[in-house]
Every structure is written in structure tokens, then in C-alpha cells.
Fold this protein.
Amino acid sequence: MSQQERKSVSLGERWRREATRGVDDTRLAAALDALPSIRKPMVRIRAGSIRCEMEGTMGSIHEVSLQIRTLPQRDWQTLIRVLRRSKSIVEALENGRVPRSFDRLVARIIGEPLFPDARSVTFGCSCDLPEKPCRHVLALHELFARRLDEKPWEILMLRGVDLQAMLAKVRQTEPDGELPPLAFGVPEEPVLYPDAEDADLGQSLSPMQVRWFDGGISVRCVDAALRALEALSTTPTPVPAPAPPPPVKTRA
């Protein structure tokens, strides 16, 4: 699979893969059959949960839910400050897209990724079917996957993030006196949060880089580092002097 193909995986497809990992084709087919019975007006997406009502056989109604904890807020101001220097990520969010780079940025600064793995999502259903998850839960997973393909920002809603409020804080004009200058005159922070599926999160953004971005390293230190780099690029590499010839041995 090429890098371009990896980049094209949608949020909905990622959710579908996580939700159906280890589920056999027969159960997936039963979930797709049950999907139309979800009562669309009764689908409720809130911070930390997705709930719906589903019509079962003989007129029964099943209450189905998915739950996940919301993202912690302790380092959110640091995330806001870095986003002010990440123009491409902000533009994507403003256009209703949630790039993988934002997911990785959240993971590094907040401590966990925006997009959850299957183990962090719990479920419940009022049916008495023995298999877990039942076809109603799988159907709700599929419904949310389809919604993410159309409205990817709903993943933010589920994790307790108010997208518009976050963007409003990002747009607030604040003095950059505490932030280090951008290197080499670039308009935004370099792309250190790759979108590829196989990108190594641990190598995307180091703790030192986070300190650099949010002003934890002084401007004086940054200026000294930039001057040293500039000096390295202009100072010619010294040519080592030739070694002296070995002494000539003479006979006594």
C-alpha cells in the first residue's frame, strides 16, 4: 500500500476497522440488516456517548449505546498555542476536516489521541442476544462510521471538544513575545505530525519540541541556536594539515 493510499483512509473507515476487528462476516451481515431499523430521530451524539433506539422484532424497542471518556482538559491551552502556529491544521478544521496530523498533535500534548482504539469504547444494549457485541451495537458502530464520512467533526463532539469554541480561541490575537521565532522565516510550524498510517507517533514530536513550540524555551536560547546553525552553514570546513613524513633512519 502506497503512502498516498494510506493518507486517503477516512475517519469513518478507521472507525469501522476498529469496531469490527475480530468480528466474523456473518455477524457483520446481520448488523447491516439491522441498520435500517435504527430510528434516525432517536440517534443522540453527545460528549462521551452515542445512543439510539432500534426497532426489533414484534415491535420491540432496543436501547443501544456506545460510551467513551472525553479528552482531559489539563493541557488544552498548550494545544491552542501550538495550533496558532499550525496554519494547515487550522484550515482543515475550519473546513470541517479532521486531519491525522491533528490527531497526533492531540495525542502528544493532551496525552491520548483524539481517535480512540476499540478497547476504549464500551457498549450496551437492552436486547437479550448472547453474542457480544450484538448486531444492534455493530449496527450503531456502522451508522456512526457513515456519519464520520459525511461529518468528520462529530468525532470531536464525541470526545467532548467544542470545535467552534476551540477555533475561536485559536483566532484570538495574542502577543507572540513568549513564543520562539519560526525558523528560517517559514509561515507556520513545520509538518511534524505526518498523516501516513504507519507514521511513528513517538518520532513525530518530542517533548523538547513541544517546549519549543509553546514557549518553554526562552527566545534567547532559540536565537543562540539559530546563530550557531547559521555559523555552521557559512564557516568553511577546515582542511586538516598533512601529517609530517616519518623520520628517515640512517645507519651508524
About this structure: Residues 1-6, 191-205 have pLDDT under 50 and may be disordered.
